[in-house]
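=== Structure Prediction Worksheet ===
Name of assembly: unnamed complex
Input type: mixed (protein and possibly other molecules)
Chain count: three
Listed entries:
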Amino acid sequence: MSRPVLQPFRRWIVMSTRSISPAASARSILSPTGCPAASSSEAVRAMVDWTSSMAETARDLRREGMSCGLIAQRLGVSRNAVIGKLNRMGVPSPREPGGHGGPGTRIQLGKREAPETPRGPKAVKLKDDLAPAVKASAAGLDAERLAKDISLAQLGGFACHFPVSGHQVAADEHRFCGLPVADRDAGELKLNRPYCAHHAARARARDGQAGA
DNA sequence: CCCTGATTCGC
DNA sequence: GCGAATCAGG
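=== Predicted Assembly ===
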């Protein structure tokens, strides 16, 4: 019948208890023209199953400051896929200046007031001040550099679990901060987050904007 | 020109 | 929900 075909090699691993939902299976692939670019009989693009693992990894990596492009490479997906996914997840844009002031430093949040633009022509551009949280987190970048950068296996019960792998690493080789957590006796905030003071603050700031 | 992220839009 | 195309800025 219509689509006998292709066994999508969408494995991407799935260590989660439940990652592939029936919906995903139903989605299957196909769609001869998934996108305008692929119009015509172009190769079929295996749609990636965004498992929780991938989503979490992407989110963490991005929070580290890794650009979507690198994350995309790591996950093996396109940059737009990562951006789109993260945006859909509600992950804001940390875009910490800690990366490199060179290429791609554009924060400028704030949605366009006129999305009515037919996407082709010029779009509206709005300039909005950065949220204080972003600035604050940026100031704490030093803390990340001071992180122990240890593996998950070495993380203790009170070690910060904030991912700090600033390089491209496999999901299983992810490195974490490892600094003492703050919720033991921070005196200020006592969250259950297994993060140190610095990362806890960042996490809160992040959740505050979009608690996906 | 490169890079970046954001949004729009078809599937 | 997914990703490409497009846009927009550094």
